[in-house]
Amino acid sequence: MKLSAVVQSLAKKGFVFTYSSAKGDPAVSDVFSDSRRVLPGSIFCCIAGAKNDGHQYAPMAEAAGAVALVCEHPVTTELPVLLVESTRDIMGDLASIVYGEPASKLLMIGVTGTNGKSSTTYILRSILQAAGLKSGLLGTVVESDGVRERDAERTTPESCHIQRQLAAMVKNKCGACVMETSSHGLQGGRLNGCRFDVAVFTNLNPEHLDFHKNMENYFQAKRLLFTKYFKEDRKEDQKENGKGNGNGNGNRVAAVNADDPYGVRLLKEFPGARGFSFADLSDVELGMDGSSFTIGTHGPGGPPLSLKSPLVGNFNVANVLAAVTALRGRFEDAVIAKGVAEIPQIPGRLEKHRLPNGACCVIDFAHTPEALRNILSVARGFCAGKLISIFGHGGGRYASNRPALGAVAASLADLILVTMDNPRDEDPATIADDIVEGIENHSRQEGKETKYRVILDRKEAISTALCIAGPDDVLVVSGKGAEKYLTIKDQKIPYSDAETVEDWIRLAK
What we know:
By secondary structure, the protein is an alpha/beta fold. It folds into 3 domains: 3-98, MurE/MurF, N-terminal domain (Udp-n-acetylmuramoylalanyl-d-glutamate--2,6- Diaminopimelate Ligase, Chain: A, domain 1, 3-Layer(aba) Sandwich); 102-341, UDP-N-acetylmuramoyl-L-alanine:D-glutamate ligase (3-Layer(aba) Sandwich), CATH 3.40.1190.10; 351-508, Mur ligase, C-terminal domain (Protein-Tyrosine Phosphatase, Chain A, Alpha-Beta Complex), CATH 3.90.190. The protein has 16 helices and 24 strands. The strands form 5 sheets. Strands 9-8-7-10-6-11-12-13 form an 8-stranded mixed beta sheet, sandwiched between helices. The longest helix is centred in the C-terminal third of the chain and has 19 residues, at 428-446.
């Protein structure tokens, strides 16, 4: 695509910019915001970030083969320049144009909320696969373009990266993309260039308030999925009571948790949205190996639907209910039931490891008080011995959650090991002290002693817990899930909870 055609398309979309064409009209094939990844034929977008200013890397991008720049202020260059007020605001749509507007060629499903996003995306993808619809995935755990799967670097990447991945999905003959949409990504414009056919809201609990400042701001960021990034409800698509062909051409659907107060707000604001609730369920059976339940008449006129899921816990029932609500009517009930029954083990989400003595170790991403309460409550349900909780809290994150995490663990666990979890620029000992404060305050209020130890080295803490676990005990290692690193200062040090546990098991046999 010629640069002039890209510029004309941006102007038609209403973007305001100054275009300095310099000389020539180069062909454009890629868009990058990281100068280290620039390829010949790329547009390099200069982003003024909190720590680095991309404008200073324009010469590096030019040397790597960039053919044009997007800048917020003039730079010294001989390349064509689009001068804009905000690089982030234009970058997603720019990339979408360059990559052939891939989102318009996929069934786009976005999931937002505090807890349950990753699990819900895996459930949705399992249902899509059962329907024979090849699907890509973008989220906290992995990125998949339908052929290649790799560890994700962040929940919602930069917009140019998202558009590149969507284009790869189209090239690989995917019919759908399932995506986690974080509050940072929604508010920061990383979803620009995307419009979603299906939007799912799981829940909202205090998190990221160091960034959003208060819950209302946090909610408004999540709400953007249902306003700014939702496709228009086209009348020509409203056929067969809202059914589509499963390939992006059906009527849009919003699935919203009616048991969450912020979900109730969304349902009032968007009366066409489908609410889901535990009140819709009957015959609920929960066990260590999964769950079964029946959904009553729900969505577009469907009869009761009985489901069996390999996922454990009430919160995973809610995640299944969210996914089923989002897709029911688009696919046959038998297909949905098959997809739910075949949900794979989700890495780092209630991931179970059996110890040689019969004890069970569970690894989970739970890192908010509500998520920790959920996972410990589930573990308590199948724990015949001691419940041991091992966790920390990330540095540079909402510090008020630290004593709350301690209090939750003290209310449910028999033994707590407080450790490190991505301390970043903070002292891990200080973070641990904040957690211990919550443990001790809860103990005083309840008039009982809660056993705890502080072992900052995470590998040592987990190994200690594994060594003392009895045959009927359950260990819950939470906070990092499938992450394969520890962030200390500005370094990412290779590390995995699952590898730590499996290494210990191999030596113990």
